[in-house]
């Protein structure tokens, strides 16, 4: 769920990946804590190239709208901030620490979790992200998160989940190599900072 300091929204926006938006039924229910809300619109994706498989799912981003705003208590249910338009993650050889949140499998052949999970991950520089994936990622659209030794990160069922850095959602779970969390390939996320203007302009569809 997004917080937008520049726009006053009548509806709450859920940021996800295109594959999640396309798979959602016409009427879905989103639950947060003990509160829930019905999706008003299926999804809005990024133009004709959303989730482009010819470019490793470039533009893998969608907006989902809910009919009634969620009730935020600031503790168990709270919105997340958008990153700045500029690169939101410092470009460091050592990487920086982020947090992945999700309900996905606990390993490739594991089970979906009943309790929301979180794990601290290294967010790699654009250069190392591209290098570890042998040139298959594009720093304009992608950001990578994982651990050098493998064993921690996203898995099936985490798609659309947030990667958080410094209180901002900098990534959305997009794709990864299998088996899950295998070294030396970190998980690949949609780079949210690339789409801030698009997100803000498309929130108007809720009117």
TrEMBL record:
Keywords: Disulfide bond, Hydrolase, Protease, Serine protease, Signal, Zymogen. InterPro entries: Peptidase_S1, Peptidase_S1_PA, Peptidase_S1_PA_chymotrypsin, Peptidase_S1A, Trypsin_dom, TRYPSIN_SER. Gene3D superfamilies: Trypsin-like serine proteases. It comes from the Eukaryota. CDD domains: Tryp_SPc. GO terms for molecular function: serine-type endopeptidase activity. Residues 59-204 form the Peptidase S1 domain. It is found in: Secreted, Extracellular space. Residues 1-23 form the signal peptide. Belongs to the peptidase S1 family. This is GM26270. It comes from Drosophila sechellia (Fruit fly).
């Amino acid at each position: 769920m997004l917080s937008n300091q520049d726009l006053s929204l009548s509806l709450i926006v859920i940021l996800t990946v295109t594959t999640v938006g396309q798979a959602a039924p016409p009427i879905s229910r989103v639950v947060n804590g003990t509160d829930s809300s019905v999706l008003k619109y299926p999804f809005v994706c990024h133009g004709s190239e959303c989730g482009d498989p010819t470019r490793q799912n470039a533009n893998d981003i969608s907006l989902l709208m809910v009919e009634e705003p969620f009730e935020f208590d600031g503790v168990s249910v709270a919105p997340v901030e958008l990153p700045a338009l500029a690169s939101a993650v410092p470009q460091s050889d050592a990487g920086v620490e982020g947090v992945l949140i999700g309900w996905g499998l606990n390993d490739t052949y594991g089970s979906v979790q009943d309790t929301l999970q979180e794990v601290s991950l290294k967010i790699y520089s654009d250069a190392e992200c591209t290098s570890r994936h042998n040139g298959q990622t594009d720093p304009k659209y992608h950001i990578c998160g994982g651990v050098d030794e493998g064993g921690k990160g996203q898995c099936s069922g985490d798609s659309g989940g947030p990667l958080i850095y410094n209180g901002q959602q900098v990534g959305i779970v997009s794709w990864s190599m299998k088996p899950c969390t295998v070294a030396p390939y970190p998980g690949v996320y949609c780079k949210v900072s690339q789409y801030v203007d698009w997100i803000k302009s498309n929130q108007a569809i809720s009117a």
